[in-house]
Every structure is written in structure tokens, then in C-alpha cells.
Write a structure and sequence with these properties.
The protein contains four helices and three strands, in the order H-H-H-E-E-E-H. It has helices at 4-14, 24-31, 36-52, 81-90; strands spanning 57-60, 63-64, 75-77.
């Protein structure tokens, strides 16, 4: 089953023109209009996870952020092919358990 926050984020950025971005608060407000501030940390955390998977890019002042070291006001957008490749190259290798 898909996470409703993930679905909302990906649907929002899927409809954007290339290079355009959204604020994480837009997603939070869509999901919980009355208490969107409570939802915002969850949206940001999931956006970070999605960035590490190469599914979106978090930007600050129009430039991609370092997923391990950023603060402040950010925006979300579709990743470029290069950004997706970079995110995937940073992921730790999958170790298969070899129980013979």
C-alpha cells in the first residue's frame, strides 16, 4: 500500500513543468488543511527519503541541496536524469544474505 504523503508529493510534482517546483507546505495543506503545520515535518522527512531514492529533488534558492546537510526554506521538484543517477550512486549497496 502506498503512503498518502508520498502519493501527494509525487502527484504534485508530476504535474509541474520542467524546472518548476512546489513548497512542501503545499502538500501539507492539501492533506490536512486545518492542521497543516503538524503535517509539514512528515512531508519534509518523506521528501528527503524520496530524494535519496532519486524520485525528487529538494532545492534551496534553485539549487539541489546536499541531502545530508541542509536547513531552511526548501522546494520540491522533478529530478533531472543526472540528479537521479547521483542519488542512486550514493545509496549503500544491497547485501544479499547468503545462507547456505
Amino acid at each position: 500500500m502506498s503512503d498518502p504523503i508520498e502519493t501527494a508529493i509525487l502527484n504534485k510534482i508530476a504535474g509541474l513543468e520542467p524546472g518548476k517546483s512546489i513548497e512542501p507546505a503545499e502538500v501539507a495543506k492539501e492533506l490536512q488543511p486545518e492542521q497543516w503545520q503538524r503535517m509539514l515535518p512528515k512531508v519534509r522527512a518523506l521528501a528527503l527519503s524520496l530524494m535519496r531514492q532519486g524520485k525528487l529533488t529538494i532545492t534551496k534558492k534553485g539549487k539541489p541541496v546536499d541531502p545530508d546537510n541542509f536547513r531552511g526554506v526548501t522546494r520540491l521538484r522533478q529530478p533531472t536524469e543526472e540528479e537521479t543517477a547521483l542519488a542512486l550512486s550514493r545509496r549503500p549497496p544491497v547485501v544479499e544474505d547468503d545462507d547456505d
